[in-house]
Structure formats: structure tokens, C-alpha cells
Amino acid sequence: MVKVRLREIRNDLGWRLRRYRARRARAQSKAIFIGITGSSGKSTATSLLGHILAGHGTVHTQVLANTLKALVRTLYKRMKRAGEVDYVVFEAGAFEPGSIRPMAEMLKPDLAVVTMVRLEHFAQFRSLEAVAQEKKALVEALSPGGLAILNADDPHVLGMASDVRGRVATFGQSETADYRVTDVHAAYPDRLTFSLRWNAGEIDVQTPFPGEHFWLPAVAAIVTALELGVPPEEVVAKTASFEPLANRCKVEAIDGGPQFIIDAAKAPWHSLNIAFEMVAKARAVRKRIVLGQISDYAGSSRKYRTAYGVARDIADEVIYTGDNAHRSRASQADRDSGRFLELRTPKDASDHIKQTAVPGELILLKSSANLHLERIALAWTHDVKCWIPACGKSEGCYTCGLYEVPFEEHKSFVANRRIERRKRRYERLLGGLGFRRRS
């Protein structure tokens, strides 16, 4: 008991020390700090903005890992290693009430960007107003004279303008937006294009995204870059060369095989129709939708039934997988004809697609991250051996990188890899000191 208590005290003191060092690093840094939040689009906006700014200065981008611990690590450890930078772009995620404010107060952003407010983490927030209140903490923490970049089309976001101590720039399709978006078009294989107009100019933008809904995070990043003084022509060029994030509608086209749109990072109910609409507008010889876990909805699991009704009108085949695969309420006629398939595991879904694929067909993989449906696409280019239905890891398979190793061997594989790395570092150290390893 005493040892446990001492360990707790040590861990608490260590965390306090890291936070102190992080605050000191923030106070001493001359970088421009940018915080980005929102119910959807923040990861893409953060990553794209970092990509654009990289051609205009030195940048540290913290994306996906969007917690207070990640921010502390960024400020006191990673920035120290990288040296002074011109820009720090940080994605701030909300997991429960009060989760953003500590990050915002430590970050003290010079620019705060809010993409949208939707009902996310339903069990914790319960209402749009509660989500908006949480996101607003980033805007309220702006440094004196800072800039808030807000979505003019979302009243919950636009309402945050009254709490800004500095300047506000709005973007959206609304005629009142400072940066107005028009001519939005995407119909895969045609990638997203749009025009952006503001008082000082106009640009036509080509992006690598397969769906129209990506205009919002793209414009959020572009407007921020323009406000920071990046030339419009440089913004256009960098946006066109951006590589979308894994599992966020990244396209994986297999030579002689299917084309996958991998949207397997999250599947909140409020955004499901957006993914389906993207498939509906696409052009392909055949369309299939693989649906896994839906999240963030109120009421019963009838949402799976509703989703199937929409999906079957869009796709030639709909595959439900995961623990809720039985909730589609698909008719017996749809099951008998193959219009609907209930395959409980990602491995079953992968095997079926491998056996029935048609060259050039389009397959949407849509689910919350727990099922790791990206493995279905990976199996076409890699020898995937990790097929556990739900591994418990929050990171995607592309980041984990262990999909070619059976799940039960992950721990030993990582341990052996760590030992090998230490051996190589030790040998390099000895080599630098003039010693040679005996054969």
C-alpha cells in the first residue's frame, strides 16, 4: 500500500513538473500558436494548415493526439528538440465537459479556429449547447489582440464571436461571411474544387478530397494561412499537393481491383449522411458500402435500420459488420438477393470482398475506429495477419503498423523491436568512441 501511494505521489509530482515546463516553454517561445477545434474537420484542417505553412516557415503540427498530455509533451519536449519554430498548430479535442479549457489556457492561442458544432460524445455532453460551450473555451483563451476564425454557416460557432477579445474572421457559404465559398463540386473520381472570395482577392482551389463536405476543413485551413500572410498562389499550390489523412476519406485505388474510400476513424450519427452522399454522387461501375459501428446518437439502435434504408438506395451491396450487424432490419428479399450481407467480423467482410471484387468498383469503409475497417483495404496490398475484431487500440492500423503481425504477438514483437533499437544505439555509441564489437 505504501509503495502504491509513493508511486502515485511520484507520478503526480512528475506531471506537475511537466506542466510547469510546458507553460514556461510556451511563455518563452516566439512562435505563432494556432489552436483548432470543432466536432468534425479539425484533424484535416490542422494537418492541411501545417502542410501549407511548412512552405512559409518552420512548423510543428500536433494532430490526432489532441489531449492535454499531448499538448504538454509538444511544448516541453518536442519543441525543445526541434528548436524554435515559426508556427505551432495544435488540434484540441473535447472528450468531456472541461477538457478543452486546460489546453486552451496553456496554449494561449494567437489564432483560434472553430470548424463546426455537432452532438459528439453524446453521453458526456447531451446537447449542442453543451458542445458549443466546450469549444468556446478555445476562443475565450485567445491571447490579447488574437484572431478567431469562425464558421459563419454554423450559428453555434458564429455565436462565439461575442466572446472574442481580438479580431474575428468568418468563412462559409453564407453571403455575410468574410471569406465566401462558392462553386463547391466533388463527384469521385472528380476531386473537390471550389472558389473562395474575400475583399482582397479570389482563388480557385483544387484539392485531393473525394467529397464535397471537405470544403469546410479545407477553407478553415486556407483562411488561416491567408490571414497569416501566406500568398494566395502558394496556398493554392500547397492545398493541391496535400496528402489526406489516413482513415479520413483517404482513397486507396488498387491496380486492377476496387477503389476504397477509407473513412474508418469515426462514424458519428450526425455525419453518416455526408459519407453516404459522397458515394451517391460518385461515378463507378459498382458501389458498395461496408458499415461498422455508429456512434454519438440518442435513443435506440434503430439508427442502424435507418442507415440501411439510406445506404441500400445508394449502393449495389451493403455489408454490415461488427456487433451491431444484425440491427439493419434488412428484408429477407434483400438478404436472398445479396443486396444486404451480415458479416460479423472485418475478416469475413474482407474475404467476401476479395472473392467478389470488380475492377474499378467503389467501396466505402465507414465505421468508428474500434473495428479498424482499414484492414479490408490493407489486405489488398499487405499480408494482414492481425484480424482480431476489436483490438482496443485507439490508433489506426496505418499508425500502429503491426497489421502484418498476429495480435497475440504484438507485445513480444514490440518488446523485441525495442531491444534491437537499444542494441543499435549502443553499438553506434561504442563506434563513436572508437570501440568495435567483437565478432
From TrEMBL:
What Gene3D superfamilies does the record point to?
Mur ligase, C-terminal domain, Mur-like, catalytic domain
Give start and end of each Mur ligase central domain.
Answer: 36-224
One Pfam annotation reads Mur_ligase_M
Write out the entry's keywords from A to Z. ATP-binding, Ligase, Nucleotide-binding
SUPFAM superfamilies attached here? MurD-like peptide ligases, catalytic domain (SSF53623), MurD-like peptide ligases, peptide-binding domain (SSF53244)
State the superkingdom.
Bacteria
Ligase as UniProt keyword: yes
The question of whether Nucleotide-binding is a record keyword is answered with yes
Molecular-function GO terms, alphabetical? acid-amino acid ligase activity; ATP binding
User: What is this protein identified as?
Assistant: Mur ligase middle domain protein
Q: Which organism is it from?
A: Mesorhizobium plurifarium
**What is this organism's lineage?**
Bacteria, Pseudomonadati, Pseudomonadota, Alphaproteobacteria, Hyphomicrobiales
